[in-house]
Amino acid sequence: MPQGNRRAWVLGILGGSLAAAAAVVLAWGVWPTEAPVVLPPPETVAKATDAAGPVRVEQNWSQVSYDGLVFPNERTPMQKFRRQTVEHVQWIDARNGVRMETTRPKEDIILLSAPLQ
Q1: CB neighbours of 54 closer than 8 A, spacing ≥ 6?
Q2: Residue 97 confidence (pLDDT)
Q3: Residue 93: CA atoms inside 13 Å, Cβ hemisphere, count?
Q4: Going by C-beta distance under 8 Å and a sequence separation of 6 or more, which residues neighbour residue 60?
Q5: What is the mean pLDDT of the chain?
Q6: The whole model's pTM is what?
Q7: Which of 17, 28, 98, 108 has its Cβ near the most Cβ atoms within 10 Å?
Q8: How far apart are CA 73 and CA 85, in angstroms?
């Protein structure tokens, strides 16, 4: 590979990596890391359950992090992101005094092509 093409390839990877890192840093600053837990007041739950049965309250929290470049093959650089999600669900039945909760963690890997110039 000629020296000029190699330099352009390396600069393209560095530029794409810096752009992806900047996007993640900006998203991290805007994205709430902890959300306040807000449950409906008991009297609201009691009114709703009288008419329709149990009430479902669902909350989801997500966080995205940048894990760098990966190379599935020599010609295809990919940007790797990791999305971690926690899903919290409550079922409240005020008539019977029953309250059930589940918490489920989930992790996804997202691969995006890294543009090279």
Answers
A1: 91, 92, 93, 98
A2: 81
A3: 7
A4: 85, 86, 87, 88
A5: 75
A6: 0.48
A7: 17
A8: 29
For position 81, what pLDDT does the model report? 95
The pairing of beta strand 98-113 with beta strand 76-93: antiparallel
CA 9 from chain centre, in angstroms, equals 30
| Exposed / middle / buried, residue 68 (Cβ in 10 Å: 0-12, 13-18, 19+) | exposed
pLDDT digits (tens, 9 = 90+) for 48-101: 555 567 888 899 999 999 999 888 887 888 999 999 999 999 998 878 888 899
Q: Which tokens is 18 given?
A: 């810096």
Ordered DSSP codes for 17-71 = HHHHHHHHHHHHHHS-SSPPP----HHHHHHHHHHHS-EEEEEEEEEEEEEEEEE
CB 111, CB 79: distance < 8 Å:
yes
Q: With contact defined as beta carbons under 8 Å apart, do 51 and 86 qualify?
A: no
